[in-house]
Known about the structure:
Blueprint: E1 9-10, H1 12-16, E2 25-28, E3 33-36, E4 45-46, E5 106-109, E6 114-118, E7 124-128, E8 133-138, E9 145-151, E10 157-160, E11 166-167, E12 175-176, E13 181-188, E14 196-202
Parallel strand pairs: 1-2, 5-7, 6-8, 7-9, 8-10, 11-14
Antiparallel strand pairs: 2-3, 3-4, 9-13, 10-12, 13-14
Amino acid sequence: MPKQVRLRRGTTSQHSAFTGADGEVTVDTDKRCLVIHDGVTAGGKPVDGFIKANPGSPLTAQTIAGPVNLAGGDSETFGLSVTNQAAFNQVVINADLQVKRYLLLQESITWATNINLNFGTFGGKRITLGGNTTFAGTGYLFGANLVIRIVCDGTLRTLGWPAGWRWVGSAPPATIAASKTALLRLWSFGTNEAEVVAHYLVEP
């Protein structure tokens, strides 16, 4: 029979009142992780901020508590490859690298007299107007931006906008002509509508 090595163990609550010896390793039976001790810190340092492989549940979200640096890859090989969808609160691209493709996931918004544009969801949106429309915004985030294609049906339509948005290049459009396509760009620089900069273009 091979030998077994068993570490001291206890619940998270028990660990909080325990100061292990410098270099001692124990097991947190609630978090199911190792705890490293330094001889002075009560509770030690739980090793629970690392990737926890769970191949049995690929749809279960796994949290990484600290920064992650992926050092692999080169100019011809991806440093990070995601098979399915990925959600990012912010996207930072190294300015020294050539960006070959940057794709925005899109959603189709069903026309209504009041349409909410959520900055916290898809970065690309497309809308075909079937009547007069008043737009609102939610989910304002630092650095979030939206690209929206607006297609008018066969009738001139009136448009309404949040009072706080700041428009550049032109005043907020009051109407869109029949059968015209417009492009609306929105940048959020804060968490309220007064921090949104809007730019509107429409085909002649």
